[in-house]
Design a protein that fits this description.
This protein is an alpha+beta fold and about 350 residues long. The chain has a single domain (about 10-105, about 115-225, about 245-285, about 315-345), classed as Kinesin. The chain has 11 helices and 18 strands. The chain has helices at about 20-25, 60-65, 70-75, 95-100, 115-130, 185-200, 255, 260-285, 300-305, 305-310, 325-340, and strands at about 5, 10-15, 30-35, 35-40, 45-50, 50-55, 80-90, 135-145, 150, 165, 170-175, 180, 200-205, 205-210, 215-225, 235-245, 310-320, 345. The strands form 5 sheets. Strands 2, 6, 7, 8, 9, 12, 15, 16 and 17 form a 9-stranded mixed β-sheet that branches. A 3-stranded antiparallel β-sheet has the order 3-4-5, with helices on one face. The protein has a two-stranded antiparallel sheet with strand order 1-18. The chain is globular.
């Protein structure tokens, strides 16, 4: 607590798709073990190191256990503000890593081994609550940032833009956002599915189910201790958050074939990711050499301000394709993630 802590950055390399294999794409990313990957291609020969690297054959469970996600859940219960966000090119496996295959988000699904970091974290949270004997009050909020507008994904009302405010005590927050209480794994998974179905997605040349917005699911955790002296009472003791951020994928319009509305969405996605990358570059500098961090440049950076440079504990999952055709975007993600490793917070 209060100590300078680096962002934990892990890398996940997805398998080559059937399309990439039929096309004859070469695999240009190779895991060397010990958290290191090597990129080998014409005019490109580079090695990158991370806290952990998960190759194409890594299971969802291995990513959960090896990324430090279980420890992040425990820290959130202990009152810390914890965030995990997935970053990478469109179609690189971000949503799969967080949620698993679409429609398989239920713990009772036919393929429980495919469940993502979110569902496994929910189960771990409720399991920890029972084993610790701590009374936890749990609630969830779920929003998306679409074309620089913040929308509530849990509200049953027609989509409308919500205001993003700032206060000295809360930092940046979303005004009038719905928060729903839950006590069971089934309830929170249902909320996740309901919200995800309302999220904006489209198909293009690189991804048949491309997320067109950044999505942020936040679990609010309030623990209570019971005092028996002098009279029995329950008093609030800790408040933590566990935040999951599924960033829309960076994309080149010429590669995706996007036109019209898709092109506008892509430009807004890339602009917000550029703002995020700029903030990370500045935060990666030593504290004495940092200039003003432009969190206000986008709605995304405002919402992530506390996670990136404030008092939070943050895990970044960088997702890449090993395909030779995606080399440029893969290198961009690797450099982006390498810079993020130098960012520090004071939880």
């Amino acid at each position: 607590e209060g100590r300078e802590t680096r962002l934990r950055v892990v890398l996940r390399v997805r398998p080559l798709t059937c399309t990439e294999q039929r096309r004859g794409d070469r695999r240009v990313v190779h895991s060397l073990g010990d958290g290191t990957v090597h990129v080998s291609a014409a005019r490109h020969d580079a090695t990158f190191g991370f806290s952990a690297v998960f190759d194409a054959d890594a299971s969802q469970e291995a990513v959960f256990e090896g990324s430090g996600m279980r420890q992040l859940v425990e820290l959130a219960i202990d009152g810390f503000s914890c965030t995990v966000f997935a970053f990478g090119q469109t179609g690189s496996g971000k949503t799969y890593t967080l949620m698993g295959p679409l429609g398989q988000a239920s713990p009772q699904s036919e393929a429980p081994g495919l469940l993502g970091l979110m569902q496994r974290s929910f189960a771990c949270l409720l399991e920890q609550s029972r084993s610790r004997g701590t009374g936890l009050a749990l609630s969830a909020s779920y929003l998306e940032i679409y074309n620089e507008q913040v929308r509530d994904l849990l509200s049953m009302e027609p989509p409308r833009a919500l205001s993003l405010r700032w206060s000295k005590t809360r930092g940046f927050y979303v005004e009038n956002q719905l928060s729903v209480d839950f006590e069971s794994l089934e309830t929170i998974v249902d909320l996740l599915l309901q919200g995800s179905r309302r999220r904006r997605t489209s198909a293009h040349a690189l991804n048949g189910h491309s997320s067109r917005s950044h999505a942020v699911l936040t679990i609010h955790i309030r623990s209570r201790t019971v005092s028996i002296h002098p009279t029995p009472s329950t008093c609030p003791s800790k408040q933590g958050t566990l935040c999951f951020v599924d960033l829309a994928g960076s994309e080149r319009v010429k590669d995706t074939g996007s036109t019209g509305e898709l092109s506008v969405e892509a430009n807004n996605i890339n602009r917000s990711l550029l703002a995020l990358g700029h903030c990370i570059s500045l935060l990666a500098k030593p504290r004495g050499k940092r200039t003003h961090i432009p969190y206000r440049d986008s709605k995304l950076t405002r919402l992530l301000a506390r996670s990136l440079g404030g008092s939070g504990v943050t895990l970044m999952v960088a997702c890449i394709s090993p395909s030779s055709r995606c080399l440029s975007e893969t290198l961009s993600t690797l450099h982006y993630a390498s810079r993020a490793r130098r960012v520090t917070t004071r939880p």
